[in-house]
Amino acid sequence: MALQVQQTAPDFTAKAVLGSEFKDVKLSDYRGKYVVLFFYPLDFTFVCPTEIIAFDTKLAEFRERGAEVLGVSIDSHFSHLAWKNTPRNRGGIGDIRYPLIADVTKSIARSYGVLLEEAGIALRGLFLIDREGVLRHMVVNDLPLGRSVEEAIRVLDALKFVEAHGEVCPANWHPGDATIKPSPRGSLEYFEAASH
Question: Residue 24 phi/psi, 5° resolution?
């Protein structure tokens, strides 16, 4: 059965690089925090470092919102470390401050439905997991299409607002915008964000 939003996110344990050390990362250890889990195809490629660095640049904004970022590819933890140790001006990613997870068995990518079986690499999947371990948002891009880190932050803000207020967020909603509250009569009513 295909993975869907509202299901519990598949748990995993895998080797990762954090700083200059190898560590075991288990998704369920992040319960109580939001998790932004993203897959990328391969180390030492072209679009991937732009995304990995962009997530690192915004890491403080994710953490201010109670979220942790986890990156995953089918490369080994040794490859991740070598890529981190390569200067950015020579195609490396530098000192990324969140874990890069090694999915050498491809089981994590497969369980999230992003593995291209014949190619043996993952599509650019992004999954927002809530504090209870439930998948709340997912988007998958094709290999040449980089993702928007700002959109990941916007969706996280929307999820946090919905959880806190029981209202829903319309298209292109940002913090401070009007929201929608389901009415007991079955209609939808707009509410100004200033009332919160």
Answer: -85, 130
Is 48 catalytic? The answer is yes
Fold assignment, 13-165: Glutaredoxin (3.40.30)
| From-to residues of CATH 3.40.30.10 in the chain | 13-165
- The catalytically annotated residue of 27, 37, 42, 48 is 48
pTM: 0.91
Nearest partner of 144 among 79, 37, 51, 57, judged by Cα: 51
How does pLDDT run across 124-147, given as a tens digit for each residue?
999 999 999 999 999 999 998 999
% of the chain with per-residue pLDDT over 90: 77
Give ∠ CA 17-20-26 in degrees, rounded to 5: 30
